[in-house]
């Protein structure tokens, strides 16, 4: 939906506990307001998604009800007055305005409930981990690929928190090492936005642009363990071909297993989901597959998540002063050795004194 939004339109969504990434995508679309049929923050667990709207000055009307979609049509003009929504001077909906005070109250409530959610999450993770042990014990039925992973690093990019900042910080690594580039769904768009063409794109193909899918990368549709691959419908509609890889877990898990199994020397991950909040924001009630995959590939995995916060390169005045002084040293030596250069510098010095009247 975000790709279809135009500036100053009102986004009508149904997204309980909206995650920060989705909120930023809406803000970047330059929308006028958000109407959410669900609660942008339910109070189940603490997250900062709705705060993105508040900081950007975008009004949010929450909990207008799931049947609101039946009362509106895409492209029709509506108005928001306070907590009420009007169309042609007729009230068609009512919700709760999200502001700093209500958000702060929800965060307090969420912090109290977090231990409960954490307990459920851990229990769910362990239950599913016991069922998905094949992720560690068995190898994937990987289709034949053109890209060679042997004796090379692999960079896996997922469209997660701060993925743009982290990708920007490791650009020098990409330029120097030239790793195999894997884009996981929207992560492939991220690579393209930085001027890189992915070697491999893997995912269910629901959050990636047509342009990137046509960039020439090898395509792998992540299918359910029973072989169902809904993403193939889109690939076929674009006249493209792709391999199908049935596997449990998330597409980023499968990308790591694929690189590991193909003999890569090192896996560098950007934007991956690795903590409880990440998974709860994506609507997942456990992280069994991610836990198992990281156990398996952990010896060669480097998670670059948050590296932009760890290291921010800045040009300090001291460095600049040292550079200027270093450049002046040979110039001064030449002026002392050469009489002509000395006279030239003396002439410049006198003109500066006259110009500055000193």
UniProtKB/TrEMBL annotation:
Residues 305-356 form the SteA-like C-terminal domain. SUPFAM superfamilies: Thiamin pyrophosphokinase, catalytic domain (SSF63999). One of its GO terms (biological process) is thiamine diphosphate biosynthetic process. One of its GO terms (molecular function) is ATP binding. The keyword Hydrolase does not apply. It holds the Pfam family SteA-like_C. It comes from the Bacteria. Keywords: ATP-binding, Kinase, Membrane, Nucleotide-binding, Transferase, Transmembrane, Transmembrane helix. Residues 178-215 form the Thiamin pyrophosphokinase catalytic domain. InterPro entries: Put_SteA-like (IPR047795), SteA-like_C (IPR022215), TPK_catalytic (IPR007371), TPK_catalytic_sf (IPR036759). The chain crosses the membrane at residues 319-342. Gene3D superfamilies: Thiamin pyrophosphokinase, catalytic domain. NCBIfam families: division_SteA (NF040608). This is Thiamin pyrophosphokinase.
């Amino acid at each position: 939906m975000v790709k279809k939004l135009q500036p100053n339109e009102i986004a009508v969504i149904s997204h309980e506990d909206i995650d920060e990434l989705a909120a930023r995508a809406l803000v970047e679309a330059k929308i006028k307001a958000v109407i959410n049929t669900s609660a942008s923050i339910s109070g189940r667990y603490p997250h900062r998604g709705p705060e993105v709207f508040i900081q950007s000055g975008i009004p949010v009307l929450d909990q207008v009800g799931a049947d609101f979609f039946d009362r509106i049509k895409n492209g029709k003009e509506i108005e928001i007055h306070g907590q009420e929504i009007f169309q042609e001077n007729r009230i068609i909906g009512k919700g709760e305005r999200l502001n700093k005070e209500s958000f702060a109250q929800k965060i307090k409530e969420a912090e109290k409930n977090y231990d409960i959610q954490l307990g459920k999450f851990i229990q769910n993770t362990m239950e599913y981990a016991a069922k998905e042990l094949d992720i560690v014990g068995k190898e994937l039925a990987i289709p034949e690929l053109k890209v060679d992973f042997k004796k090379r690093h692999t960079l896996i990019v997922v469209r997660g928190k701060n993925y743009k900042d982290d990708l920007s910080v490791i650009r020098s690594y990409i330029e120097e090492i030239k790793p195999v580039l894997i884009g996981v769904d929207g992560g492939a768009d991220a690579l393209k936005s930085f001027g890189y063409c992915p070697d491999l794109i893997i995912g269910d193909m629901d959050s990636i642009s047509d342009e990137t899918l046509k960039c020439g990368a090898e395509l792998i549709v992540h299918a359910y363990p029973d072989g169902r691959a809904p993403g193939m419908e889109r690939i076929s509609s674009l006249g493209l071909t792709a391999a199908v890889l049935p596997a449990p877990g998330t597409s980023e898990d499968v990308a790591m297993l694929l690189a590991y199994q193909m003999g890569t020397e090192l896996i560098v991950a950007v934007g991956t989901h690795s903590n409880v909040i990440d998974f709860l924001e994506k609507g997942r009630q456990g992280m069994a597959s991610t836990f198992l995959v990281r156990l398996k590939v952990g010896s060669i995995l480097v998670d670059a998540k948050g590296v932009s916060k760890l290291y921010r390169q800045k040009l300090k005045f001291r460095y600049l002063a040292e550079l200027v002084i270093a450049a002046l040293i040979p110039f001064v030596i030449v002026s002392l050795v050469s009489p002509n250069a000395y006279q030239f510098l003396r002439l410049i010095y006198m003109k500066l004194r006259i110009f500055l009247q000193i």
